[in-house]
């Protein structure tokens, strides 16, 4: 499959971008692996004709927003995101209209239509900086992740009205299990993604985007880490730190629900087929795309 992917990439002048929540073999095969912010920067800067985005739909959509003339394809069109789905554009529009004069900050995990109704986009890597860039006298709406929103309120001291959305993976991590693991592995450091609930974040030694969590492991001397995010990130942590130990935090019902069911729809087999047929193409209404580009560019200019 790796040989076929290489040939097809050359044939179509394609680049493969992958998120850290993809299966290890997909991360290893990709031309670039990153968090949402790094991937949107990479998508904006590529000179490839085709972008195969191994991630979820809103990520591929973001690549299309910044690259209207390129073909952006995704291995599985059904790879959605519960956070993005928690903000249907019609309801979001009504919500925004209820708060005239507010600055609308939207987390990148949302649809192009929601981006088009926003003033500025943020990712988990820059949410704090984006909110701090807004003049103090301005009121703020933050969507769609209420947990990331709460975290940013705590970090910046800014009062924000929050949309009531959440990530189905991060909201069900078990605090009970985290406390038990901490007691069992006394020296382990807890690393958490800000999409987690406050009850998880309050136990964390470090909170950050997927890239920031990996960087933290690389830059600290600890030997054991409890990881409170999708366990796909552990692949890079382990690869870059073979001597260290990583314990994925389980969900509260003991299932494998800490794996994002959307991200995991992408497989090597689907990647080969998508690249061969150049199907599963992301298309966007041009007026929506143009409107969505403005808040995205505003983010990319700040951070
Ligand atoms: P990052 O931007 O931190 O990679 O997060 C993406 C995401 O979907 C987290 O659930
Ligand atoms: Fe969306 Fe959560 Fe999956 Fe990230 S982990 S893509 S926020 S459902």
Descriptive key words:
303 residues; alpha/beta; Rossmann fold; 3 domains; 4-stranded parallel beta sheet; 15 helices; 12 strands; binds 1,3-dihydroxyacetonephosphate; binds iron/sulfur cluster
Q: In words, what does this structure look like?
A:
The structure is a single chain. The protein has 303 residues and is of the alpha/beta class. The chain has three domains: 2-79 and 263-282, NadA-like (Rossmann fold, 3-Layer(aba) Sandwich), CATH 3.40.50; 83-162, NadA-like (Rossmann fold), CATH 3.40.50.10800; 170-248, NadA-like (Rossmann fold). It contains 15 helices and twelve strands. The chain has helices at residues 2-12, 24-29, 36-45, 57-66, 82-85, 89-97, 112-116, 127-132, 146-156, 175-184, 198-201, 210-219, 233-240, 268-277, 286-302; strands spanning 14-19, 32-34, 50-54, 71-73, 103-107, 120-122, 140-143, 160-162, 189-192, 206-207, 224-228, 245-248. Strands 2-1-3-4 form a four-stranded parallel sheet, with helices on both faces. A four-stranded parallel sheet has the order 6-5-7-8. Strands 10-9-11-12 form a four-stranded parallel sheet, sandwiched between helices. β5 (103-107), α7 and β6 form a beta-alpha-beta unit. α1 packs parallel to α14, α4 (57-66) crosses α15 (286-302) and α12 (210-219) packs parallel to α13. It is globular. The mean pLDDT is 96. Bound molecules: 1,3-dihydroxyacetonephosphate (13P) and iron/sulfur cluster (SF4).
